[in-house]
Amino acid sequence: PKRIAVIGLGTFGSSLANELIEQGAEVIAIDINPELVNNISGKVYNAICFDCTNENQLQGYGIGSLDLAIVAIGENFGNTVIITKILKDLGVRVYSRASNDREERILEAVGADKIYRPEHEQGITRAKEITYSKVREVVPLRSDMELIVTEPGKLMLGMKIRDLDIRRSYGINIAFFGKMKENGEHDYRIPNPEDVLNEGDLLWLIGSNDHIKKFLERPS
Amino acid sequence: PKRIAVIGLGTFGSSLANELIEQGAEVIAIDINPELVNNISGKVYNAICFDCTNENQLQGYGIGSLDLAIVAIGENFGNTVIITKILKDLGVRVYSRASNDREERILEAVGADKIYRPEHEQGITRAKEITYSKVREVVPLRSDMELIVTEPGKLMLGMKIRDLDIRRSYGINIAFFGKMKENGEHDYRIPNPEDVLNEGDLLWLIGSNDHIKKFLERPS
Ligand SMILES: Nc1ncnc2c1ncn2[C@@H]1O[C@H](COP(=O)(O)OP(=O)(O)OP(=O)(O)O)[C@@H](O)[C@H]1O
Ligand SMILES: Nc1ncnc2c1ncn2[C@@H]1O[C@H](COP(=O)(O)OP(=O)(O)OP(=O)(O)O)[C@@H](O)[C@H]1O
Q1: Which positions 74-93 of B are in contact with A (Cβ < 8 Å)?
Q2: Where would a tag sit more exposed on chain B, N or C end, judged by fewer CB atoms within 10 A?
């Protein structure tokens, strides 16, 4: 399992740490605030309370043997930069959190291996979800690709998957389709060409942003 | 176009507002802090500076004619609850931001139509991305489904898509495959049964969390 330090146990840091534990990682959870350290100490490999801008303490806790350190501090950017620099100088792989473009560039300049901007990412995702009306969900993916979950247009109902011709006309793939029931259960399945699209079915489409946009803006 | 008010122009609120504008919505951006209102006033339909817990002002600005209001305030939960309640009493559809479970339940109790927990969502997403090693990216989707972008296992190289038997063995679909080049360009395409998987190709797989997990934990 990977040994990963999470520094800063605010909402982002603690969710990240908790999910890493779920996924079987060895998590070292660190915060200057003892209450936050106590909250997580039952679940983690190690929970430590100290100020991470203190290089001696950071070294003392064996931070050199990590697979990865994540600086999840949000508001105190000064601390984020300092801690990132200390860890990079110790040869640790570091992912750090930024609140805007400038902070992102500063962290890259001091060597952060990856930058997280959680609120920014979510703002974009949720805005796309809101804007399309038949679309229940938009999920931005890497390389300008996206997945959408959408109700089919009226003209599509009763048609076979192969006759929809979505692949050929729009270059997008139907990853899954099926119904979502009231109780949260669903019957999503990989589409076969002979399957028929019915009222209540949802389509999971995946393709480039441009292709998805063309599909959504098609004359209905 | 939809008329949407975004209340609270921190990192989440301003990213949300900016992307809504990108997507063609009529955005009314509101914050008690004049500097944040000024920053966005060039781009939005309307940018207003006032304290949204003031019900008279909220009504005065025609908030009743909105398609949707989003309360994107983060730290001051008291304000979030009050503003959510005022808007619900005015008959507006409201999405509100929470920082934890309890806040989420409180907002549901006062009638919020949807709850956002941006840092929490991102913590989970990033943790999954980190934990799988061949996996370049994990994207959690609704209904316990997920998409992953992964390098193929060594045993898969040189095989045809149809012989991989991923659909039948694991119930997951190959949405796209292809190479990502250095300059960020890619040749991702919808797989045909006769396509051959080569060194450098990435697979975009989509399926239920359990099926993806079984696939990733298969004996290699
Ligand atoms: N020097 C430091 N050493 C260790 N922990 C620190 C240090 N500075 C800040 N932290 C911790 O980082 C955590 C998260 O940072 P902060 O509260 O500034 O961000 P936030 O934006 O509120 O976080 P979130 O949005 O994730 O809730 C806090 O719990 C804080 O105690
Ligand atoms: N009563 C209010 N009326 C209007 N705006 C408000 C009110 N209360 C807070 N805000 C604004 O909401 C914005 C975001 O809230 P806040 O700064 O508390 O959250 P945050 O966690 O720092 O946000 P983010 O994580 O998105 O950066 C702030 O710009 C603040 O001025």
Answers
A1: 74
A2: C
pLDDT digits (tens, 9 = 90+) for A32-44: 999 999 999 999 9
The Å distance, Cα B109 to ligand 1 centre, comes to 29
The boundaries of every CATH 3.40.50.720 domain in chain A are: 3-116
For chain B, residues classed under CATH 3.30.70.1450 are 125-216
Are the Cβ atoms of B173 and A180 closer than 8 angstroms? no
- In three state form, how does the secondary structure of chain B look? CCEEEEECCCHHHHHHHHHHHHCCCEEEEEECCHHHHHHHCCCCCEEEECCCCCHHHHHHCCHHHCCEEEECCCCCHHHHHHHHHHHHHCCCCEEEECCCHHHHHHHHHCCCCEEECHHHHHHHHHHHHHHCCCEEEEEECCCCEEEEEECCCHHHCCCEHHHHCHHHHHCCEEEEEEEECCCCCECCECCCCCCECCCCEEEEEEEEHHHHHHHHCCCC
Architecture of the structural domain at A123-216 = 2-Layer Sandwich (3.30)
Classified by CATH at the fold level, domain B125-216 comes out as Alpha-Beta Plaits (3.30.70)
What's the gap in Å between the CA of A19 and the closest CA on chain B?
A: 6
- Give the least confident one: B34-43, B166-175, B180-189: B180-189
Nearest residue on chain A to B123, alpha-carbon basis: A16
Q: CB B176 to CB A145 under 8 A?
A: yes
Q: Do A24 and B131 touch (CB under 8 A)?
A: yes
Query: Residue B180 — very low, low, confident or very high, per pLDDT cuts 50/70/90?
Result: confident
Asked if A169 reaches chain B (Cβ–Cβ under 8 Å), the answer is no
Residue A4 pLDDT: 97
Q: Does domain A3-116 have CATH number 3.40.50.720?
A: yes
Q: Any residues with Cβ below 6 Å from ligand 1, and which?
A: A 7-13, 30-33, 36, 51-53, 73-76, 79; B 119
Tell me, in angstroms, the distance from the centre of ligand 2 to residue A138's CA: 25
User: For the segment A62-105, what is each residue's pLDDT rounded down to a tens digit?
Assistant: 776 899 999 999 999 999 999 999 999 999 999 999 999 999 99
CB contact under 8 A, B139 and A143: no
